[in-house]
# Entry
Amino acid sequence: MAPVTFIQLDFAKYPFLKQTSKRIEELGLTIENLVAPENKPILERAQKRLENAIMQVNAGDMVKDSRTEISSFAAAIILAIATKNSLIKKRYALAEAKTAYAYLLKESKENILIIADDFNWDLNLAKDLPYDFCLGFNFYLQNASHFHGNTWKLINQVLTSGRVYLNKDKVARLLQEAIKKRIEARLGILELKSLPEDITSIAQNLTKLAQEVLGQEMEELPKVVVQAAFPPCINALYEAASKSHHLSHIGRFTLTSFLVNIGMSAEAVNELFKTFSDYNERLTLYQIEHIAGERGSGTHYIPPQCSVLQTHGVCKNSDDLCRRIYHPLAYYKRKQKLA
# Structure
């Protein structure tokens, strides 16, 4: 077993660990005192974690105070349960897992061993083959069984004496899956009784946000793409792409995620990028299908909200309707209703 050498920052990065849970208990945070004035930063960060999960599938940037960051995870669990919304719970678990994955890619091998040990994994450093780690094949199968693509099939792995040899990026991806499952289990409580009014109010606002962006709004979108209802920013991106003009990374992501969310097929979106100078058919189609949730982890990505597009200079030619909308997909839906 790897020696425990985590510092406070590590616990803030990985608040789902059993070791971190003990730290949260020591801080004495309860549902009742969560709404106390002195804990306002914790509740605000918790709300931000869930908002980021709904909008961007990540937990957002850490705050400087480690106590607030660690406690906000427990508070976010409470808020997610308070919504009584399975979609929000799943989205939040995935967001925390994906955020952890980004940290894991930069971690030392020793710290990854500590995290794997927290999940009772049979993971060791690889010594006799040119890989980073070796993992008991049963642990590999438990977390890779539903992954798509030949790269994850057991037959395509290096398997020796019941151990699968892997590099750090693959171990991080497997840990992401284990993290998601653990958080989903913690969110399995159906209801919390006697919640403070402030928590209930925040939960209602989160539910409304999810319905606007992920739920009912998406289900009610017509199957036929209506370009006349595009928000001005999407129109600008679409026109630029049609003329093979350069698009920034966030511009390409915004346009692609918007189009696949309103019903355009991956093949049709792919056609839009064919005249670009850096076009690669296999890579472009893979990226589009990944955004559409047809590849990789199965996450169905949505465009960034308007405030993010403004920050990155993607917001163009805003109109009166834009001033009452905070998301491109909400604009699209509202524009069709007005029509």
User: Anything to note?
Assistant: The chain has three domains: 8-103+182-213, 108-168, 216-338.
